[in-house]
Design goal:
14-stranded antiparallel sheet; mainly beta; 4% helix
Length: 272
């Protein structure tokens, strides 16, 4: 049955992850890590809830929370009334000020226990070790750890399945094509973001007025996961916060849509 796979694929790209040749790019003067100004995109305590749907079926929610120190957590839960779907998962990331991955772990409930992946970073050796974990309860220490793989990296500046949702927010108002190494579910590829600064409006059920947005699209070379073909398109709020408003991800059976349904961010409401 593909429905559970579609929902977890939507999480993996997490609000718009993204094969084009690698394009070298410079970081804007006010981007994270430059020391010029703190990027307004990241806010401790930002709390966003998205609904995931496939055709007419509403599958579940993604609850994304930002924490101090450039860390974030996504909780994914399927709705109880969706046939053949019983999905509960948590993805966590730690990032540097440029939104590159510096820590990543995930856990998915499978029957009476939680199966997960944890990335172990060997920065000096340019290696990423992928560890499988098993635990009886989500907050308990894993009772079993197995080393699954070791990936040789050309650079340790890469995106994981959750940081990939933050990285394009800092560049959304620029015009460039950016390709970044990406590790999704323990597989290495590249994600290409095509940023055009194209402005439009999008409507969502949670707001009675069209929202001003900036459109972005792209692809990922990490293929063969859950019928995903790599293409995505997304719309971010046309303001300094660049909050993801809506996204579409192509999968084997069609398009999965991710739409903002609740938000809590100090001083922010969708721009109209």
């Amino acid at each position: 049955m593909e429905l559970p796979k579609l929902l977890i694929a939507a999480l993996t790209i997490t609000l718009l992850a993204s094969s084009s040749p690698v394009v070298q790019h410079s970081v804007p003067a006010n981007a994270p890590g430059t020391g010029v100004a703190r990027n307004p995109v990241f806010q401790d305590g930002e709390d966003l809830v998205y609904e995931v749907s496939w055709t007419i079926f509403k599958l579940g929610t993604i609850h994304l929370t930002s924490h101090a120190g450039y860390s974030a957590e996504a909780q994914i839960d399927s709705y109880e009334n969706v046939p053949f779907v019983d999905l509960h998962a948590v993805h966590c990331t730690e990032m540097d000020s440029a939104f590159y991955s510096r820590g990543c772990r995930s856990a998915e409930k499978k029957e009476d226990e939680w199966w997960g992946l944890k990335y172990i970073y060997d920065t000096a050796g340019n290696r990423l070790m992928i560890e499988e974990t098993y635990q009886k309860e989500l907050r308990l220490t894993p009772y079993r750890r197995d080393m699954r793989d070791t990936i040789r990296m050309e650079t340790m500046d890469f995106l994981d399945g959750l940081s990939i949702g933050y990285f394009p927010r800092s560049l959304i108002h620029s015009e460039q094509t950016v390709t970044v190494p990406t590790v999704l579910y323990g597989k290495l590829g590249k994600t290409t973001f095509r940023l055009t600064n194209d402005k439009t409006t999008e409507s969502i059920d949670a707001d009675d007025r069209p929202i001003r947005v900036v459109e972005v699209d792209g692809t990922t070379t990490v293929r063969g996961i859950f019928g995903m073909n790599g293409d995505f398109k997304g719309w971010f709020s046309d303001d300094s916060a660049a909050v993801p408003i809506k996204g579409k991800l192509k999968v084997l059976l069609g398009n999965v849509t991710i739409e903002l349904i609740q938000w809590k961010r100090a001083g922010w409401n969708p721009p109209h």
